[in-house]
Amino acid sequence: MHYIYLLLAIIAEVFATSALKSSEGYTKLYPSLVSILLYGVSFYLLSLTVKHIPIGVAYAVWSGLGIVLINAIGYFYYHDTINLSTIIGLLLIISGVIIVNLSTNAH
């Protein structure tokens, strides 16, 4: 169940960050409210996660997968450009998250 909370926290954070971009600096009401609400949901779910999973592992997964997913959304939805350096960096982040998960006894 802990990893389900973590997955939901990641999803909420990714949607919050997407809404943050759409809020245009918190000048648009509805995207601003969505962003604030979903960040709250994300942090709440993350707080449930760290009761049972080491905080370093939970945060590595939460932030690492969030970075990868928000880059994908930025590329496909907001038409952000991604270059080779970005791809290499994202692969290193994914590798780091995998290594952190494999090297812990949190399971």
From TrEMBL:
Chief place of localization: membrane
Protein topology in the membrane: Multi-pass membrane protein
TM stretches of this protein: 32-50, 57-78, 84-102
Keywords (A to Z) from UniProt: Cell membrane, Membrane, Transmembrane, Transmembrane helix, Transport
GO MF terms held by the record: transmembrane transporter activity
Domain of life assignment: Bacteria
CC terms in the record's Gene Ontology section: plasma membrane
Family, per entry: Belongs to the drug/metabolite transporter (DMT) superfamily. Small multidrug resistance (SMR) (TC 2.A.7.1) family.
Protein name: Multidrug efflux SMR transporter
